[in-house]
Amino acid sequence: MNDTRLELKYLISLHQTNKILKILNTLPFSLKEKYQPRLVNNIYFDTYKNHSLMEHLDGIKNRYKIRIRWYGDFFSFFNPTIEFKIKNNKLTTKKKFLMKNFSSEILASKKKLISFLKTELINNKIINFSQNFKVARIISYKRKYFEAKKNKIRFTLDENLTYKFYSKDNLILLDNLRKFKQRPFNILELKCEESQKQFIPLVEKNLQLKSQSFSKFIDFRY
Questions:
Q1: Helix H segments across the chain?
Q2: What is the CA radius of gyration of the chain?
Q3: Per-residue pLDDT tens for 181-196?
Q4: pTM
Q5: What is the pLDDT of residues 77-92, one digit of tens each?
Q6: Looking at domain 2-207, does it have CATH number 2.60.120.200?
Q7: How far is it between the farthest Cα atoms of the chain?
Q8: Neighbours of 135 (CB within 10 A)
């Protein structure tokens, strides 16, 4: 499964969120909620030498990152997929592979998770990355979805970002340190095909926001 589009991110404070949503509804897109709000869970991976991290920090225009994503409760799995998110200048392409045998037993052990992903990558003929990766980030958040009726424009709003990590005892724990180092914020994201990019200035003018280069993958790494 492949999906190519423009993705622009806007970091907004918690007290701005309701105001931003009201302004979105005044734009000429006839936005409707596509899904009920749901939890999104991600495990990001990187090479042992942190190639994905360094490419993002260096502003490399052509880069990729890999993650496992699923929806709903953290230890329940709805449509778990392996996703390669490939960045080519401002265009983002996602290549997805559905995982049928992912389970809470695998998630509960970092060793089993790594072994499982290696097998899945090899089965999908992704050989190079399968020999050199580690768990880099575990993150969950609540996502709201809005889609235009006529134009192929979508917005998502990510709230309640929660970070986790594997402890030395192989337990998945909450990373509460982030609360003391960053002010809380939500993430609004605009997603559209390149042919619809003429609507971006209209959106930014009305929201009085400018897009930012931001990745949940590295936001708390330093």
A1: 17-24, 51-57, 104-107, 110-123, 127-130, 178-181, 200-207
A2: 18
A3: 567 899 999 999 999 9
A4: 0.89
A5: 778 999 988 888 778 8
A6: no
A7: 53
A8: 16
